Automatic annotation (TrEMBL):
It comes from Nocardioides hankookensis. SUPFAM superfamilies: Thioesterase/thiol ester dehydrase-isomerase. The lineage of its organism: Bacteria, Bacillati, Actinomycetota, Actinomycetes, Propionibacteriales. Signal peptide: none annotated. This is MaoC family dehydratase. Residues 156-176 are annotated as: Disordered.
């Protein structure tokens, strides 16, 4: 299974559909709110949301929606990244509710070789997130510095830093 891409593997215009989706539970949303100290009642207080908001129910906190979509994209986009350089824009265009399932896809908008180091480049991408009904809920654009193949080769290939299992009395090694 591929995890991220080198600079050469990105093509402008390519779209990567991230799999699987993620169903957002009330627990997920509340835990994220509590961990990040976001205590807005729109996310935590059912009575408040039902009685005083246009939605009539709790809305999932936007930073969690963004975090899910960003995480979904790692295997396809930034799994080999050297650095996430910039989030150019982030728009929440529709609410996400408890029980919604999020899906994401990322399109490569542009790519440029590094001017200072010849073993890397910058990929400019747009990710959209949508729910089980196909309703787009979040759109963001970002720039990611990714390695070229030469960078990866110099550091151990596809899985740099991966150790080799050492035979001992518990495991004698691969059997021929």
């Amino acid at each position: 299974m591929q995890f991220g891409r080198s600079y050469e593997e990105f093509e402008v215009g390519a779209t990567y559909k991230h799999w699987p989706g993620k169903t957002v539970t009330e627990y997920d949303d509340h835990l994220f709110c509590l961990l990040t100290m976001n205590h807005h009642p729109l996310h935590l207080d059912t009575n408040y949301a039902e009685e005083t908001t246009q939605f009539g129910k709790n809305v999932v906190v936007g930073n969690y929606v963004y975090s899910i979509l960003l995480g979904m994209s790692v295997a396809d986009i930034s799994g080999k990244a050297i650095a996430n350089l910039e989030v150019e824009s982030l728009r929440h265009v529709a609410p996400t509710f408890h029980g919604d399932t999020l899906y994401g896809e990322t399109t490569v908008l542009d790519k440029t070789e590094s001017k200072s180091k010849d073993d890397r480049g910058v990929v400019y991408v747009e990710t959209i997130g949508y729910n089980q009904d196909g309703k787009v809920v979040c759109i963001f654009r970002r720039k990611v510095m990714v390695p070229k193949a030469s960078y990866l080769e110099a550091r151990g290939g596809e899985q740099p830093g991966r150790p080799v299992p050492v035979p001992d009395k518990v495991w004698p090694g691969p059997q021929a």
